[in-house]
Amino acid sequence: MLKIDADAHVLETEKTWEYMEGRERKFRPQVVGSTDGSSDDEYWLVDGTLRLKSRNVGKNTPIASRELRDVTARLKHIDELGVDIQVIFPTIFIIPLTPRPEIDLALCRSYNRWMADIWRQAKDRLRWVAVLPLLSMDKVYDEAKFAKENGAVGIFLRGSECDLLLSDSYFFPLYDTASRLDLPVCIHSATGSPILFNYFKYETIGFSKFKLVLVGAFHNLIMDGIPERFPRLKVAFLEVSAQWLPYVLTDLAKRYHLQGRELNKKDLLRESRFYVGCETSDDLPYIIGHAGEDNLVVGTDYGHADSATELLALRGVLDDTRLSGSIANKIVSDNARALYGL
User: Fold this and answer.
1) Closest alpha carbon to 282 in 305, 252, 310
2) Residue 128: which CATH number?
3) pTM exceeding 0.90
4) Could you list the residue range(s) of the whole structural domain that residue 134 is in?
5) Which residue in 60, 93, 181, 335 has its CB near the most CB atoms, within 10 A?
């Protein structure tokens, strides 16, 4: 059985941006520290704006591993954790970085080429999700195709992008690209909306701007019929636990009924090809009773240090006495293999 960490992270370094060429080089993010010695915090300087770099760092992971400066060290550590394959998500892109399409494209291209090099060193044990230039939709397919050919198993998306709902027709070329290339769209706890990010700028923990916006995106995509419009599209919702699923499914069933339709809540995830990341603190038997067992996955949030981080999450699911062995195996292995095409 392949034990798959469906949501791990890398912390970007200066090397991430060394793949920029020519005129793109002027867009390279720079690491900036306190000039007066009043703080140990570090920041990324991106397009003239400081973005905090040194928070949410998982100190229970070796620095060379969480920054992927040493791929061998990462592989050794996941061996110790009982993980066969990690699917790696970015860190810096959890927030909106720039409104300028040319900078957005340069950042995405460099990040993807960096991760492609890491994948070549890791012999398929470190897979990754691509970051696409959503401000240049005409370049999305070519960038996604490069990523697919170089070890990517998904496309990174945030709960809100470009100050638009994810069901907006603006994103249809992205969903068509994902469908054609058989890459799932992986909606991670994050926001790409400058309006939303700035509205919640004083919210230090990111619950509303990062987590609740993802729950809303799930509801919105179902109500606006995106699974029916794109029948080959797979979508994952990650790092918000799964405890919200029964509430949202019940709400959707009520709205379906008002429209003269009936919703089988337990079949919705399977029929929509939607997957949800769970956590060991979730009431998994209750969730499975509402949403079924075939579309739940689990991740460690490796490299971070927030409410979703649990390095031994896969082992926790396998050892959970509330679950049968077959259901635990699905969450740790089978469902993630189906989601990511592994």
Assistant:
1) 310
2) 3.20.20.140
3) yes
4) 4-10+62-340
5) 335
